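Sample A.
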Amino acid sequence: MIFFYIRHGDPIYNPDSLTPLGMRQADAIAKRLSLYGVDKIYSSTSNRAIQTAKPTCDLMKKDMELLDFANENHAWNDFTIQRGDKKTWLFQDDKTKQLFTEDAIISLGHNWYKHPEMTSYERGIDRIYNESFEFFKSLGYEHIRNTGKYKVAKSNDKRIALFAHQGFGLAFLSVILDIPYPIFTNHFDMCHTGMTVIKFEEKEGFAVPKVLTLSSDSHLYREGLPTKYNNGLYF
C-alpha cells in the first residue's frame, strides 16, 4: 500500500476555509496525485481539509470519506500548552521544545508522557493511536504498537490519500511510524499541501512503513506557486 498524507492548503482559520492561494495549492496537489493515481480519498472533517481534497476528488472522480478523528480541533485540545494568556502547540512552545531535547524526556522513549510535566498528554496519544489502529485495520494492517511494524491481516496494493493538518499530522505520523512525539516534532514539520508518501512494505505477513518523501512541495514549484515554508515563516 502507498499512503499519502497531505496537509491542507494556505488557510483562513476563522472562518475555516482556504485563501485564494490555498485553493491554487489544492489544484496543484490534485494534478500531482492524478499522475500517481489514488484509489481512496479521506479527509478531516475540517472545511479547510475538505476544500483541499475536493479538487483531487473532482479530477479523479472519487468520493471523499470523512474522518473526524483527524480534525485539528481534537489535536488542539490534546497537544497544546497554556503560557500566560496564550495557548500554543507543544511543538511551537520554546520551553517545551527545549524540554524535548533533554535526557529526562529522550530516555523515556515511547513513554515520554510519563515525564512529570507531560502526563496530561498521554490521553491524546492514546486517542490518536486507538483511532489510527482502527483506521489502518480497515485498510488491512494491524499496528503492533512501539515495534515499527504492522501485521498484514489483508494484503493491500491500493493508493490511499488522507488530507488533514499539521498539529494532528505530527502526532499521527509519530504514532503510525512509532517515533516518539518529542523526537518527531523537534526534527520534522510539514508545509501547506506538503505531501508525505509512505510505503507499507509487506514481507512474511508483516509490513514496515517506510517514508519515501516527507512534506514534498514539488507540485507548488511545478505550478509556479510560492514555495516559502508556510508563507515565509522561516525562509
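Sample B, a different protein:
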Amino acid sequence: MSTYNGINSTELTGVTWQKAKRSNSQGACVEMARLSNGSIAVRNSRFPSGPALVYTQEEIDCLIHGAKEGDFDNLLS
C-alpha cells in the first residue's frame, strides 16, 4: 500500500496506534503508529477515522528529541 500525508486512518490496516501515557479520557491526545515501510503515522485521537499525517523516522526522531530538550516548551499552556 502506498501511504501519503492525509491518508484516511482507516486505510492503515494492521497497525497498532499508541497514545502517550499523559493523554486524558476526553481524547486530548494524538496517536502514533509505525507503518510497515518504517515511517510513522500520526492521527488525532478525537477523530480516529480521520486523516493521518505520515512522517519519516528521522522527522519523528527530530520532533521527539526536540521535545525532550525543551524546544517546544513555549507551546505549553
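Observation for Sample B: The chain has a mean pLDDT of 92.
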